[in-house]
Amino acid sequence: MQGTTEEERVAIALVMKRLGQTMDQIGWDRRLRDLTATDVTALIEEVLDGYGAEMSRIAATTEVPF
Questions:
Q1: Is the pTM of this model over 0.85?
Q2: Disulfide check for 11: which of 4, 42, 54, 66 has CB 3.0–4.6 Å away?
Q3: Considering the domain boundaries, does residue 25 fall inside one?
Q4: Are 55 and 11 in contact (CB under 8 A)?
Q5: How many other CB atoms are there within 10 angstroms of residue 49's CB atom?
Q6: Residue 31 belongs to domain spanning
Q7: How high is the mean pLDDT in each 10-residue block of the chain (66 residues)?
Q8: Handedness of CA 20, 38, 9, 51 (dihedral sign)
Q9: CA 7 – CA 4 distance, rounded (Å)
């Protein structure tokens, strides 16, 4: 992502931790092309749900600048 904000970078870092936990369940030794549709869906859901949740959490603690 080009021009990410500090809040977005923080959310991405936190999502990577969640994604790592999902990869622990799937198995780090598996190549992306060897993942099942269920595995890939789980990864995508983790990224989308995690990012939305982290951005919401960050926004709730951030003061509106106007």
A1: no
A2: 54
A3: yes
A4: yes
A5: 12
A6: 6-61
A7: 86 93 95 95 96 92 71
A8: negative
A9: 8
Distances (CA, A) of 46 to 3, 36, 59, 63, 65: 23, 15, 19, 27, 30
Only one residue has tokens 């500090």, namely 6
Could you give the number of structural domains in the chain?
A: 1
For residue 1, being part of any structural domain is answered with no
Q: Does residue 66 fall inside a structural domain?
A: no
Give the pLDDT confidence of 20-34 residue by residue, as tens digits.
999 999 999 999 999
- CA–CA separation, 51 and 16 (whole Å): 9
DSSP the chain: -TT--HHHHHHHHHHHHHHHHHHHHH-TTS-GGGS-HHHHHHHHHHHHHHHHHHHHHHHHHSPP--
